[in-house]
Structures are given as C-alpha cells and as structure tokens.
Amino acid sequence: MEQNIDVAGVTKCFCGNPIIAREFLMGGVSYLADSRLENLKKLRMLDVPKIMIRLPMISEIEEVVKYADISLNSELDTVKKIGQVASSMDKVHGIVLMVDLGDLREGFFNKEDIISACEEVNSISGVKLMGIGTNLSCYGGVVPTCENLGRLTEIKESIENRIGRSLDIVSGGNSSSYQLVEAGKMPCGVNNLRLGTMLLLGHDEVNDKWIKGTYHDCFILKTEIVEIKDKPSKPIGEIGKDAFGNVPAFEDEGIIKRAICAIGKQDTDIKWMEPLDGSIKILGASSDHLILDISKSKMDYHVGSIVEFQLDYVAILSVMNSTYVRKVIKNRDEKVREG
Ligand SMILES: *Cc1c(COP(=O)(O)O)cnc(C)c1O
Questions:
Q1: Distance from the CA of 69 to the center of ligand 1, in angstroms?
Q2: Structure confidence at residue 331 as a pLDDT band (50, 70, 90)
Q3: Residue range 190-200: mean pLDDT, rounded
Q4: Among this protein's residues, is 12 annotated catalytic?
Q5: What pTM, to 2 d.p., does this model score?
Q6: Which end of the chain is more exposed for a tag (fewer CB within 10 A), N or C?
Q7: Which phi and psi angles does 206 have, rounded to 5°?
C-alpha cells in the first residue's frame, strides 16, 4: 500500500547544526523542525518551511513568527498573539493544533474543544489553520496504534466538516509512530511525521528494532585517557553519598585495571553510550571524569590513548549541547567538513 507521508526532520538533538540539517534536506524531508528558536535561527538560510515543535512562549512570539513558518499550538491566547504579530509583519503564520490522545503532554483533550478551537483559529487573521497533530510515547509512554491515531483522523474529518475545507497537515507523531508505517497500519488520514531519532539512529523505539539499510554509528565520541592504574574495584572506607547524592554499591572483583577519561556528566550520559571496544566496562562518572574497567581489553591503552564510544539519543543530545566537546562532521568517505 502506498502512503504519502511528508517528513519534518527534527533537528533539536543536534542543536540545529545546519550541516547535518542540510543532509536531512538531501534525504528528502519536506520541513525542518525544532523545539528551540535558537536552533531555528541557525537554520534560517536553508530554504525549506520550518516548524516550531514546542508550544511557543507568549514572550517569544516575534521570533517565532520570524524564524518559523508553522508552529504547534494548544492555547488560543498564544495563537491570537501570533496572529497579531504576524499581521503586523505582513505575514501569515501556519498553525497546527495539538490533540492529546492520552500521552498527557501537550494538546486539547476533548474532541469538542479541539473542533471549536479550530473554528476559532480559522477566523483569526495573520494565521492559517494548517492542521492538527499529536505526540505520543513522550510523557506517558503511550504507544502509537491504529486506534489512537485513528481517533486523530476521525477528529480531522469532523473538523473538515465543521470548517468546510480540508486540512493540509495531519501530523501523527514522532519516531515512535514510524513502526505503523512499516507495518502498513498507519491510518491513511495521517500525512506527516516529525522524525528525529529515526533519521539519526535508524532506530524504531517502540519495537526496539534497527531499520534496514540505516547506519547506527553516526555519532562517535572520542575521549582521552588521563590516568591508568591498577586499583581495587571496591572503594576503601565507609561509603556515604557520591557527588550526585546517591549511595553507590560496588562488587569486589579484587584488583582491576582502571582508566580515567577526561569527560563527565557535564558532557554526556553514560547510560546511553557504548565503548566500541566491547571488552571495556563503564564503571561510572562524575562531572569531569569517566571511569572505565579496561582489565579485559586486549588493546594496549596508555595515558593519552583515545577511547571511542557509540552514542544513543540521550548521550547525543548531551554531547551536542556541551561546549566542552569539539564537534567534527565527516562524510563516510572521511572528507572532513567544518565543525
Ligand atoms: C522531539 C520531538 C519530536 C521528534 O522526536 P523523535 O522521537 O526524536 O523522532 C517530534 N515532535 C515533537 C513535538 C518533539 O518534541
């Protein structure tokens, strides 16, 4: 079954880096989308419609209208302000109203409320009601299904009947909704998805499967060893709280070979990174030190050696936001481009 679904490439995970965003465009996305205006501003030279995907703050509407063509909304006061500002700039800003299908983050919860909100938005000058959207598996962990997204398409039809025209956008969620497309089960009214994780990691979050033909190692973190010493696996002395307020527990494995790398919780999330050398074990981290057990590795590590890690979503987000980590963008054929 053929399905026409436009993709909004979500750039927030890499802080709106325009070089990576351009690769999204080459890959065929129809929009770029971000939750932060600072990131949308970085993308302003790219000629493609941009969507602000976090509900706009009333205090930032001027910039919303300036840097985004469309925004996701759930409050009429905000939409009215957008209408005023857009009119004063001789612009028309697109509005997608959010429907909460049960995940309990943003959006109108009752069908009648969303329909009357659409009627009202339809009458505000300076804005154009582009459509509706939803977000699942974020706060409540609610899995996208034919049933809940079917409700979205039902709501779309009721709105179209009420306002007497069709809606351009029915946005069925984030990467977690992609599994329905692959299974051929996406309700046919859905014509847009907002994808970040899936484009960056080739990962279907719901089924925890890798998508065929995708690379999973596009984000590699390189760290430098600043100490290697043989020490016990278990700290000596009475154990109180660690630097982050937790009381840690340790196995006694005798003397192990421990390495410290110069990176820490200021820069990354150790639960979401995996050493490329599979025999290395991450023991823990404090703000600026990453502690590894390298006892089992066959590699000859020494002070100054580089240890590489493959990153998953949360670690990518953290690393890309750390001003202490230098970012280098390469093609797979190793041609280095500016950072
Ligand atoms: C972050 C975000 C997305 C993208 O989510 P992924 O799971 O990375 O695809 C889509 N929509 C909204 C509203 C978001 O905040």
A1: 18
A2: confident
A3: 96
A4: yes
A5: 0.94
A6: N
A7: -75, -50
Give the chain's end-to-end CA distance (angstroms, integer). Answer: 41
What is the residue type of 75? E
Q: How far is the CA of 221 from the centre of ligand 1 (A)?
A: 23
- Which residues neighbour 148 within 8 Å (Cβ) at sequence distance 6 or greater? 101, 102, 134, 136, 142
CB 32 within 8 A of CB 51: yes
Both tokens of 76, joined, read 């009429």
Residue 232 confidence (pLDDT): 96
Residue 333 pLDDT exceeds 80: no
Q: Which residues does a 6 A CB cutoff place in the pocket of ligand 1?
A: 10, 12, 35, 53, 135, 174-175, 194-198
Whether the predicted pLDDT of 241 surpasses 60: yes
Res 203: pLDDT: 86
- Ligand 1 atom showing the smallest separation from residue 197 Cα: 8
Specify the ligand 1 atom closest to the Cα of 10: 4
